[in-house]
Specification:
Length: about 300
Amino acid sequence: DINFISFSEVNFRNPDLNKNIYLYTSSEDKDYFYKSYIEDIIFGLEINGASVVPDFKFLKANNNKVFMEILRDSCNIDEIKNIRSDHFGVLEEVRGRLNQLDSISVIKSAFGSKSRSVILGRNKSELLKNAEKISRSRHSFYDAWDLMRKIRHKDYISESRNRRKFIIQNFIPGLNNDWKVLIYGQKNFVLRRENRKNDFRASGSGKLSYQEELPVGLLDFAERIYSKMDVPNLSLDIGFDGKRYYLLEFQAVYFGTYTIDFSPFYFIRETMGWKIVKEPSILEREYARSIAAYLINREQVK
């Protein structure tokens, strides 16, 4: 039985709050004001003992690459830790640790999609310059106010003008494309994304294709991640340099559905290996099916 309610209708004084399972989605509103409100509600449900699907940590990581990397480092999946990420809250923290960072690094804003805020630093000077660009948080009024305080008060330390959080990752050479893998229960939908021209980024390139022949081990790699994350649906961005697989990014809530919307087939594991099923899929049906299967399996495990 399903009951639809708005976030504002959740009553935290309800003694039966922890007896329900709450399915939810997120938001990408400007400046993430409503997403912040959703986080309050979902975290409130979780600390009151209610079951939220997916867990709050995945909502926190949605469009928040800093926390996404914290999840990577905190999980028990060693295979996805071949990417190293350093996270920063202000630019000044980078200056203090510049000697510890790789000369060639990828700088990513915590927020944004389609690689809009992903820049390559080819040396320490360029790394610092691009980190300054991505972290910029200048505001004319407050910057002027802060300057006046510096003039009026001796030894006053001004606030940083670069307070947008970001991450710096080691650069992975040899990636000409990546693979978007959407997992809905047992069904895997795969999209190949070529890099942009003369660029290291694949997301947002528009160079997309569905391929029946996949690199050996790609679906196995994706399946192992999915099995350990305990979520009904998962979006994975995977890189492959010919030798190793890399989990570039992942999302478990409110991710893009282009890959399933236009896929003419999907992959499913059978006893003898992976099988391709050539038929289109309906997003709403696959979402409902995978959610139901996840909840049934969870009850059986209990």
